[in-house]
């Protein structure tokens, strides 16, 4: 419970104490938008690293050298834990917006920081709003900002990491409409950090592997038609390979 309390204190404390920083960043953004973007990115990455340190999580990272640093990409990952966001975001080499549930938009201060970081809020129940969010994400990638989405649509609460939910094909419009590189991310055992023994946070070993990036245009006609299923199969294969490591 001590780790859980420390994480809660850190998150709440940062959100409250960062109010002046939000104001300063807003002012900077009026004159130097890119400076604001980068400073916000590095600050939140530092906070996330500190939180991960508090949890005691040990991370084995594989394939990080495959992630392009000179162009916007679409990150696609499996999703088992709240900590998936922290584990992946701390390793983003460039500006990256995450696509989150629309409920996150209602959380004060947190939603402000998310907007600063180009995060988008997806309402899967409203087709029109959902399409608008995807179109905004396409514009982000075209402007050089990477996007990360967990296409299972929600945290996977199944017993095994290998029991993936179906990937929503609509999530991949971000790539098919821009032909950006898709970077598969496979995460093993992240559920054991927190969700498995809620509300306790346990010191845990997790494996995070980046797969080989690919463009939709490189796929066969059939694979491109079912690109979500194709990417899911890649991630599942990696999860199976890395299961003995945790």
TrEMBL record:
SUPFAM superfamilies: Glycerol-3-phosphate (1)-acyltransferase. It comes from the Bacteria. One of its GO terms (molecular function) is 1-acylglycerol-3-phosphate O-acyltransferase activity. CDD domains: LPLAT_AGPAT-like. It holds the Pfam family Acyltransferase. GO terms for biological process: phosphatidic acid biosynthetic process. The chain crosses the membrane at residues 5-28. Pathway: Lipid metabolism. The keyword Endoplasmic reticulum does not apply. Residues 73-190 form the Phospholipid/glycerol acyltransferase domain. The keyword Cytoplasm does not apply. Keywords: Acyltransferase, Lipid biosynthesis, Lipid metabolism, Membrane, Transferase, Transmembrane, Transmembrane helix. PANTHER family: 1-ACYL-SN-GLYCEROL-3-PHOSPHATE ACYLTRANSFERASE, 1-ACYL-SN-GLYCEROL-3-PHOSPHATE ACYLTRANSFERASE-RELATED. This is 1-acyl-sn-glycerol-3-phosphate acyltransferase. It comes from Blautia faecicola. The lineage of its organism: Bacteria, Bacillati, Bacillota, Clostridia, Lachnospirales.
């Amino acid at each position: 419970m001590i780790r859980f309390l420390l994480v809660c204190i850190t998150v709440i404390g940062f959100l409250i104490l960062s109010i002046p920083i939000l104001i300063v960043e807003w002012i900077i953004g009026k004159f130097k938008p890119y400076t604001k973007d980068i400073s916000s990115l590095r600050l939140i990455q530092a906070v996330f690293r500190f939180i991960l340190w508090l949890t005691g999580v040990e991370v084995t990272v594989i394939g990080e050298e495959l992630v392009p640093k000179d162009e916007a990409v679409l990150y696609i990952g499996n999703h088992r834990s709240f900590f998936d966001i922290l584990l992946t975001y701390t390793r983003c080499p460039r500006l990256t917006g995450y696509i989150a549930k629309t409920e996150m938009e209602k959380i004060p201060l947190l939603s402000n920081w998310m907007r600063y970081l180009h995060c988008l809020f997806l309402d899967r129940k409203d087709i029109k709003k959902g399409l608008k969010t995807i179109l905004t994400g396409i514009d982000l990638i075209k402007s050089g900002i990477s996007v990360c989405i967990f296409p299972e649509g929600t945290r996977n609460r199944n017993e095994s990491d290998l029991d993936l939910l179906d990937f929503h094909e609509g999530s991949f419009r971000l790539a098919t409409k821009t032909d950006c590189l898709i970077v598969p991310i496979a995460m093993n055992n992240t559920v054991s950090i927190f969700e498995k023994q809620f509300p306790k946070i346990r010191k845990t070993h997790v494996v995070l592997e980046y797969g080989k990036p690919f463009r939709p245009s490189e796929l066969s006609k059939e694979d491109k038609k079912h690109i979500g299923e194709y990417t899911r199969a890649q991630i599942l294969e990696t999860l199976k390979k890395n299961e003995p490591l945790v």
